[in-house]
Amino acid sequence: MTQPVRPEDMRASDAERELVQQWLHRAHADGSLDLAEFDLRVSRAWQAKTRGDLALLTADLPRTALTQSPVPRQPTPPLPVVAKRGGGRTAMRVLTTIWLSVSAVNFALWLLVSLLGGAGFVHPWFLWVALPTGSVLGVVWLALGRDK
Fold first, then answer.
1. Is 120 left (phi over 0), alpha (psi -120 to 50) or beta?
2. Chain centroid to CA 4: how far?
3. Which tens digits make up the pLDDT trace of 117-130?
4. Rounded CA gap, 48 and 84, in Å?
5. How far apart are CA 14 and CA 16, in angstroms?
6. 30-70 residue pLDDT tens
7. Exposure letters 70-106 (e unless 16+ CB within 10 A, then b)
């Protein structure tokens, strides 16, 4: 019959190592650990194999209300990241301004070449620059308008 594994001999998870690292960071911020000791303990935390190894790294640190134990019984899942809305409109305004500026410069160059070149109006090459990009911007603007 096998003996039950003691809690301190249980294998440590990455979530537990991360929790110990956060605890060490808090201790460093509070002044309980200097930078060299903090660095040493964090590297040992990520090399730790068991929960007992992790507990030794924080045994001499003060307990805070946020962390009563260096090793959680059940790690809490991270909170989901909520994407902010509305940032795309600012980016689209910037991109549209750039597109309009480049298109205006190209149109002005085409007009100067056509008027001063002596051969009359030349092929409107500025459209090859303005239309594809403008079409893509227009489609994206339409898609943003529907997300309201």
1. left
2. 42
3. 877 788 888 899 89
4. 38
5. 5
6. 888 888 998 998 998 999 898 888 888 888 887 764 445 55
7. bbeeeeeeeeeeeeeeeeeeeeeeeebeebeeebeeb
